[in-house]
Write a structure and sequence with these properties.
It contains ten helices and 17 strands. By secondary structure, it is an alpha/beta fold. It binds adenosine-5'-triphosphate. Residues 18-28, 68-81 have a biased composition (Polar residues). Residues 18-138 are annotated as: Disordered.
Length: 519
């Protein structure tokens, strides 16, 4: 019997901007208007067009040498901190693997592999299942770096210190002599930071100065008397002058950091990528981009990670002649701890807003959103229309820090299912009667806010408090996981304290392994 594995990989993009954050920003001159009836009519038209097409309707640090990227208004280059970071490369030992597998609490139980068998349908392995290699080479995870105690760097943010992400594995994974990680690679968590250019308002304010310098994969924040250096897997700097050397375009970010995840998804791995950063730092720009709403056959230059990811999915699918591929999407936001489906009609018949969706926890598959709509997407063109619908329904508002600030966390999910092609003559599945399902979560978190700078009051204030609270809990959850890792004990992890962490538990945080991978 072929071995089945459950793997996942996760990327995080941290967005930032290169200025001193303590300077007060003036509130914007005008507030964004509420959604106009005209917009809603347009959305309704788009949706009815989509509904005709759909077939089912049911869910941001060891330096590399690159030039010092100096910003337009950047301070003269300060000396870098003498602190250095070394990352140890660790390979899991076989006995550890066996131990991990024998630990019932940590491993993926057999039933976590989502086996859906009906008389007619083939077996479906949820979020896992790699087919056996024909050339005899061992399986390797798509891991990038594996954090260990030795990888701790004084200036690395606490939350990404010692968290180890390992893939939950099923019983059938145990008896293998192969290493779990790519040689030389140490983790399946990759962290990148992107610095956006200063906007015209910042450039025109003499009090605003650039305080961020990037060198290779190190970033130095020079504030007042102190200087802090952080190291990441990737550091990107975008300039207003896109022709400038080392400018990180949307394509650069996607190609260096995200593109490998598309391949991983096709190999049956679960993928989660989220953008975290202060409000107005460019998370939505990185995730969605600016001209997603035009009907292009291919992503425009400004298209962000989500449309590019989907485009690559469809491109790879088109080249695949061995499997039938289905792509289903869902898109929802967590606004003030309430879940709203961004691809459903959120107003009920009588004109009032639909009740928010509930989260329930399945004993085997974990937390899920009840009644979340899922849409089958056939092409990149279809996808653009759904993105248009979803983005238009997302809660945004003007704040003192961002003219169009996301007031919610958004989660764009893709279920990629690859099934065997039916034999033309017999109408029976050609090879193994199994299909692979990978779940891809692309998360655009709402920005953390300093309420004094956002000049928030009323609804904006309530939203800001809710956003900060859920981000705080996300930090707490990651810190708990990190602590459990260092203590080599499973401690209490407050997943349920926020809807965001509860929902991400299965797709991202469950990949955590609280023990050292090797001594
Ligand atoms: N890399 C970039 N290049 C050029 N402009 C950018 C870049 N990143 C962000 N911007 C611009 O900065 C502004 C704020 O970006 P964005 O709305 O994406 O921030 P955000 O982090 O999502 O904010 P919030 O958390 O409040 O939603 C936008 O006008 C956007 O066009």
């Amino acid at each position: 019997m072929s071995q089945q594995r459950n793997y996942g990989s996760c990327n995080a993009i941290f967005s930032t901007y290169p200025i001193n954050f303590n300077k007060e920003n003036n509130p914007p001159s005008k507030m964004l208007p509420d959604k106009s009836k005209q917009d809603l009519d347009k959305i309704a038209m788009d949706k009815s067009k989509l509904n005709k097409k759909k077939s089912t309707s049911v869910e941001t640090v060891t330096p590399k040498k690159t030039d010092l990227a100096s910003q337009g208004r950047m301070n003269s280059s300060p000396a870098f901190n003498s602190t250095s970071k070394s990352k140890s490369t660790t390979t899991l030992r076989q006995d550890k693997l066996k131990k991990a597998a024998s630990d019932d609490k940590l491993k993926t139980s057999k039933s976590r592999g989502y086996h859906m068998t009906t008389e007619k349908s083939p077996v479906t392995h949820f979020c896992s299942a790699k087919p056996p290699r024909t050339d005899g080479t061992p399986f390797r995870t798509p891991s990038k770096k594996f954090f260990s105690d030795h990888s701790l760097h004084q200036s690395t943010p606490d939350c990404f210190g010692v968290v180890q992400f390992e893939t939950p594995r099923g019983k059938s994974d145990v008896a293998t002599d192969e290493p779990t990680l790519y040689e030389g690679e140490t983790s399946n968590l990759t962290v990148g930071i992107r610095v956006r250019p200063m906007n015209s308002k910042e450039l025109s304010d003499p009090k605003v100065m650039s305080i961020v310098k990037v060198q290779g994969t190190n970033i130095t924040v020079d504030c007042d008397a102190s200087q802090h250096t952080f190291s990441y897997d990737h550091c990107f700097v975008s300039y207003a002058n896109t022709a400038r050397a080392n400018h990180a375009s949307q394509a650069t970010v996607f190609n260096s950091m995200v593109s490998p995840l598309v391949q991983n998804a096709f190999e049956g791995y679960n993928v989660c990528l989220f953008a975290y950063g202060q409000t107005g730092s460019g998370k939505s720009f990185s995730m969605m981009g600016e001209s997603t709403l035009s009907n292009n056959l291919a992503p425009s230059e400004d298209a962000g990670i989500i449309p590019r990811f989907c485009y690559d999915l469809f491109s790879l699918a088109a080249r695949n002649s061995h499997y039938t591929i289905s792509v289903e999407i869902s898109y929802f936001e967590i606004y003030n701890e309430k879940i709203h489906d961004l691809l459903a009609n959120n107003s009920s018949g009588n004109g009032s807003k639909r009740a928010p969706l509930k989260v329930r926890e399945h004993p085997v598959f974990g937390p899920y959103v009840v009644d979340l709509s899922q849409h089958s997407v056939q092409s990149y063109e279809d996808l653009q229309m759904w993105l248009k619908v979803g983005n238009s329904q997302r809660a945004t508002a003007a704040t003192g820090m961002n003219e169009k600030s996301s007031r919610s966390h958004s989660i764009f999910s893709i279920i990629l299912t690859q099934g065997p092609k039916k034999s033309e003559s017999s109408n029976v599945s050609s090879s193994a009667e199994s299909s692979r399902r990978s779940k891809i979560n692309l998360v655009d978190l709402a920005g953390s806010e300093r309420l004094s700078q956002t000049c928030a009051s009323g609804d904006r204030l309530r939203e800001g408090v809710s956003i900060n609270k859920s981000l705080l809990i996300l930090g707490k959850v990651i810190a708990s996981l990190a602590e459990s890792t260092s203590n080599r004990k499973r401690g209490f992890v407050p997943y349920r304290e926020s809807v965001l962490t509860w929902l991400l538990k299965t797709v991202y945080l469950l990949n955590y392994h609280p023990r050292q991978p090797s001594d």
